Amino acid sequence: MRTQIRHYFLNAVLFSIATCSSVPCFPQSGGQTHPWMNPTLSPDDRASLVVKKMTLDEKITLLHGTGMEGLGPVSPLAAQSNGGAGYVVGIPRLGIPAIQMSDAAYGVCKSGENGRYSTALPANVGAAASWDLDAAYAYGALIGRELRAQGYNMSLGGGVDITREPRNGRTFEYLGEDPILAGKMVGALMKGEQAQHVIGDLKHYAFNDQESGRTAVNVNIDQRAGRESDLLAFEIGLEDSNAAAVMCSYNRVNGAYACENKYLLTDVLKKDWKFKGFVVSDWGATHSTAKASAAGLDHEEPAWIFYGNDLKKAVESGQVPLAEVDEHVHRILWTMFASGVIDDPPRKSVVDVEGGLEIAQRMEEQSAVLLKNDGQLPLDAEIHSIAVIGPHADVGMISGGGSAQVDPPGGNAIMPPGQGATEWGVPIWFPTSPLKSIRAKVPGAQVQFNSGSDPGSAAALAKTADVAIVFAYQWESEDMDLRSLSLPENQDDLIAKVAAANPRTIVVLETGSPVTMPWVDQVSAILEAWYGGSRGSNAVANILFGDVNPSAKLPVTFPKSEADLPHLTIVKPPKKTTDADSQGWRRTAAGLPAFQVAYDEGVKVGYKWYDAENKPVLFPFGYGLSYTTYSYANLKVAVGKNPRVSFTVTNTGSRAGAEIAEVYASLPAAAAEPPKRLVGWSKVKLDPGESKEVTVEVAAKYLSIFSVEKDGWQLLPGEYTFMVGGSSQNLPLKEAVTLR
Ligand code: BGC
């Protein structure tokens, strides 16, 4: 203890000597003073001061990672990495710390492998279903805190590609099909994350809407449709959060790889959106030196195939101007100063496990969407017998895979202890047991389990029970797409047989995407739980038994059939384009032969497609039931620069609840847009019988079209119809106004 006090005292003395009060001089390594450590200077000034002192080698050090097994060379320096996906060596001479990057889509990934713990939140698509900006902020803040506690200062979360193709295997990592909903949600999430002083990142920029052949595919989309759909989600997310990094994607867009696409990186991102942070390539998505640098790629991950020696030579030969390198470096340093990772570096500490689980559970309670309820729910606590049916519903709930995968504490719930380390391509079930959570609700009842592997025996059990609850799943992961929107492993048959045996059948879906439901009319209730995270089963049980009134709404349309999607099938590369051998990365780096995908549906993504094509759907975008009911009245639209839409929402039922009140607009015919678009919403908490007047201010941009001619957003003068209600297909209020 004494020694400790002595240390504190000595440190205090040294600090006071080295910190000058009149002149900005701050202590750093080797006793040197670094004026850029003065936090009262702007991040721009601080970055410029550092750049001036750097050698070319030091600059280049900041422009690439140190390697990852299987994706090119690995530097011995990678040994100092914190175990995350990316590690950028710092420059101690100048007081610049390393950048420690970790994937963190729905929680900090690889923590188990690193001997640490992190909370798994519900999948991102579930967070989007909450339509709750405060909840999204809390989601991001939790991830930010856990990143810091594990020693990371940069997150690789922030997926915001919109659900143009619901069979995309990463749909669970994204925030749904609407660019405004997805953009606002990722903005809030990133704000929460960056408030913890970690560098936030939005990805995968852009149009990485399918995984099949992702390193080869060339996405063709016209400029206006691109700006009004996928790119709008990024634009709003950046506007709202100032996310400090953007990850360019694997695919090509209109002929050029995203990571060397001048239109995307420079014209749109850096010039039009005034993005001040840095562009990091997806892992192995860099394909050139001079072209990528000129196009606006600032940083190569995970290695230095193009941005190491080749970049140095290119600078020395004059092929890449030094000023260009300085700009890349400036952006990275700006990001580090602006995000606070230099002034307030992460400190390894113990995460708040209980606090994290609590947040994960509350989030899932706001994320699960009640799709159907014939009055079966909420379940009566006096119930005598329940049959819990479905693969692994006795031990766990499934999670999304790939680089987003969060390690479950204790390993994969469906494997013997000690054998459950997460592995690429292997579905992971979190140890959150539906069976246990349901049993805990009704200790006096007989709650029996059947895995459903034999639908006949599952149906026999269901027949004996008051109620059958089937937990059905569809696993998703990076690097694969879904074969179809049908539930795998014969689960449709299982549900149909159980429902035939017991009409009081409730289906709980654990999926990252919409699924088709040939049994929809046979069951009495359906709850879409997405991937529920670390405490998913408690949250689901709370909803099933009415301790929580569901309030979430769909961020994606559930089509009746795959035949109704804009693309009948996902376009696949003509032949396998990647090689599993350790040299595969060389071919990828060189650039694989392109195959074409035409996004001819353009801006008509999700509900905009079904609306425009007059296709009936199974469950529409924005839809979700509650245990109470709501009514809407008194629509008023105040015309102005940003129109203000006011209306009254009333809770007409007997339970307190939260209603997501949605505002859509249809544009003048001259705009040639789909019939309507979401332009705002408000989540309103209401007690039984309570009414509230709600005002939603609609940003002019959300009512505009993107004019390629004018290279900007344009509000066309004419008649705009505002529609308000509880789902994209239930909009009882309507008012037309003229905007000029
Ligand atoms: C994924 C990124 C991820 C990166 C690092 C890539 O394969 O596409 O989303 O951040 O790996 O793990």
From TrEMBL:
EC code(s) of this entry: 3.2.1.21
Q: What Pfam families is this protein classified in?
A: Fn3-like, Glyco_hydro_3, Glyco_hydro_3_C
Enzyme class, broadest EC rank = hydrolase
In the record, the note on similarity to other proteins reads: Belongs to the glycosyl hydrolase 3 family.
Taking every annotated instance into account, which residue ranges of this chain make up the domain Fibronectin type III-like? 659-728
Organism of derivation: Candidatus Sulfotelmatobacter kueseliae
Recorded protein name is Beta-glucosidase
Identify the keywords attached in UniProt to this record, alphabetized. Carbohydrate metabolism, Glycosidase, Hydrolase
Gene3D superfamilies (UniProt xref): Glycoside hydrolase family 3 C-terminal domain, Glycoside hydrolase, family 3, N-terminal domain, Immunoglobulins
Q: Which SUPFAM superfamilies match?
A: (Trans)glycosidases (SSF51445), Beta-D-glucan exohydrolase, C-terminal domain (SSF52279)
Q: Which molecular-function annotation in GO is an example for this chain?
A: beta-glucosidase activity
Q: Which PANTHER family match?
A: BETA-GLUCOSIDASE
